[in-house]
Automatic annotation (TrEMBL):
Classification via InterPro entries: FAD-bd_8, FAD-bd_FR_type, Fe3_Rdtase_TM_dom, Fe_red_NAD-bd_6, FNR_nucleotide-bd, RBOH/FRE, Riboflavin_synthase-like_b-brl
Gene3D superfamilies hit by this protein: Nucleotide-binding domain of ferredoxin-NADP reductase (FNR) module, Translation factors
Membrane topology: Multi-pass membrane protein
Domain FAD-binding FR-type: 269-379
Stretches that traverse the bilayer: 12-34, 89-107, 127-148, 160-179, 199-219, 226-243, 249-269
Source superkingdom: Eukaryota
Name the UniProt record assigns to this protein: 13358_t:CDS:1
SUPFAM superfamilies referenced in this protein's UniProt entry, alphabetically: Ferredoxin reductase-like, C-terminal NADP-linked domain, Riboflavin synthase domain-like
């Protein structure tokens, strides 16, 4: 440590410590990949589970295993952060603790009572965090490959780190201004604009401030383009902070290089126009697009789409609603997406498609695709019983999983799954029409399977009480589902063994299903839950 200045050492060693922790977290995931590779080479097919008519009711887990599952998956509400599992809360606590340690740990030759040195420490540790902000925001992130955390989840860490950077830099600059106010002059204008280091520091923080304000969820979800263009103030932050202190390049250069590489990859992948085979505006403000593209995807993944007619720069995330073909050998893959009108971008797309379908517009609709991204946290094919839960348009990735599981059963592909339960809540029948044909197709395929071995149970809850339901279907149910009752019935039918749940929908639904699944997990079987959310 003696070779470094104290505050430089705080940034250097906090960076080293962060990298070591990342490597430690990456080791289990990398071993799991090797284990999966070994199993795929030594086993030609998955071992079939017992016939559904023979169900055991014997304990399969130790009590400590059950309590460990309940603890790490329990949902907490943290003010300023939102709902997160206990596992995520512990990780956040480790991250905040690491920053606290390197803010106040004494280094050799440092006068811990010196206010100037203490104020500088916030700047150096803030730069350490800033170095990780860039790769955490990349869709082809090195963290995705090291830790196995997909982009839609790792973006949460980007937000945490970004907020800490803003706080650190704000305290760094604010404490210096306060100190000089008390010891030099009481003129704020003189403090900021007379001294070059203060002016560059102020302008650098201003860039961060704009990013922070426009990143708030209210702006991000209601005015996405304001959020998107507001992030370009990072250029101002980089340039001016370099004038403020050139040593910051030691931290930010590698992270920024990873960001640039990601942007190049995304540009190359998404530059080519995609062949749209059909595009239609459905009832309820949903746009359905079928297309072909040279890509391989897995059920539950999502892509980013770009329509030049709507925006020159904006890319919108959307789940793939189709299942990948199990027999198609060519590189051209057929896929479908459903986009619900829930903002300016998707609403403009719906109006454009509707006018085009009605012959009111001759503007050709072109689309570019980037991806696929993401991955389910569970291997659903390895569970005897799978529960798929969707809320509104959140059923999109659920439909992809449903079709893939049934396709594997019908074609005889290796699969353990025998029972599939689909629970979908919709406000009205118009919403049901979004996937009515897909559900009918799945039922037709499933009818060829032996009912003594396989089971497909579909329940669609229409939540609006005034909606009149047709009498010729058993799928539709009036009212809201009781997930406590439904999961209890499924667990009793299933017997011993773990059950996989995939849920995508409103945040309230995600939390409710998770809490109920945790509550009903016991020694006879655990509910293992994969949640999908697109609050990017």
């Amino acid at each position: 440590m003696s070779s470094f200045l104290p505050n430089f050492a705080s940034g250097y060693y906090s960076t080293v410590a962060a990298i070591i922790i990342i490597i430690l977290f990456a080791i289990p995931y990398q071993f799991s990949l090797l284990h999966q590779l070994y199993n795929s080479r030594t086993k030609s097919s998955l071992k079939e589970s017992e016939n559904l008519s023979i169900r055991n009711n014997l304990p399969i887990h130790w009590k400590i295993t059950v309590w460990n599952h309940k603890f790490w998956n329990y949902m907490l509400h943290i003010i300023g952060v939102g709902d997160m599992s206990a596992k995520e809360a512990v990780l956040l606590a480790i991250y905040l603790g690491l920053n606290t340690v390197f803010l106040f740990i004494p280094f050799e030759d440092q006068l811990t009572h010196d206010i100037v040195l203490r104020n500088n420490r916030f700047g150096w540790v803030g730069l350490t965090n800033a170095a990780f902000v860039f790769p955490l925001a990349t869709r082809n992130s090195v963290f995705v490959h090291l830790l196995g955390i997909p982009f839609e989840r790792i973006i949460t860490f980007h937000r945490w780190v970004g907020r800490i950077v803003i706080f650190m830099i704000m305290f760094h600059g604010g404490s210096h201004i306060t100190y000089r106010w008390q010891t030099v002059t009481h003129d704020i204008g003189d403090l900021i604009f007379t001294y070059r280091v203060n002016l560059t520091g102020f302008l650098s923080f201003f860039g961060l401030f704009v990013i922070g304000v426009t990143s708030h969820s209210l702006v991000r979800r209601r005015a996405f383009e304001v959020f998107y263009y507001g992030h370009f103030f990072f250029i101002m932050f980089l340039l001016v902070s370099f004038l403020h202190d050139r040593n910051h390049v030691y931290w930010l250069s590698l992270g920024f290089l990873l960001y640039v590489i990601d942007r190049i990859i995304r540009f190359v992948i998404g530059y080519k126009e995609t062949n749209i085979t059909s595009i239609k505006a459905l009832e309820g403000g949903v746009t359905r697009i079928a297309f072909t593209r040279q890509m391989k995807y897995k059920p539950g993944q999502y892509i980013f789409v770009h329509f030049p007619q709507l925006s020159k720069l904006q890319w919108h995330p959307v789940s793939l609603s189709s299942a990948p073909s199990l027999t198609e050998d060519s590189k051209q893959h057929h896929a479908t997406i459903h986009l619900k009108s829930s903002g300016d971008f998707t609403e403009s797309l719906f109006k454009l498609v509707r006018s085009s379908n009605n012959g009111e517009s001759s503007t050709p609709i072109t689309m570019r695709v980037e991806g696929p991204y993401g991955r389910p946290s569970l291997n659903f094919q390895a569970f005897k019983t799978v529960v798929l839960i969707g809320g509104g348009i959140g059923v999109t990735p659920i439909m992809s999983l449903l079709q893939d599981l049934v396709d594997r059963q019908v074609t005889g592909n290796p699969i353990t799954t025998q029972s599939i339960f689909l629970i979908w809540t919709v406000p009205n029948l118009a919403s049901y029409s979004w996937f009515e044909s897909e559900i009918q197709e799945v039922q037709n395929k499933f009818s060829a399977l032996p009912t003594e071995k396989y089971r497909l149970n579909i329940k669609i809850f229409v939540t609006r009480p005034k909606e009149s339901l047709p009498a010729d279907t058993t799928l539709l149910i009036q009212g809201r589902p009781s997930f406590d009752t439904l999961l209890s019935e499924i667990k009793n039918y299933h017997g011993s063994g773990d059950i996989a749940i995939a849920v995508c929908g409103p945040a309230v639904m995600l939390k409710e299903v998770q809490q109920i699944g945790i509550k009903q997990s016991d020694q006879f079987g655990l509910f293992k839950i994969h949640k999908e959310t697109f609050a990017l």
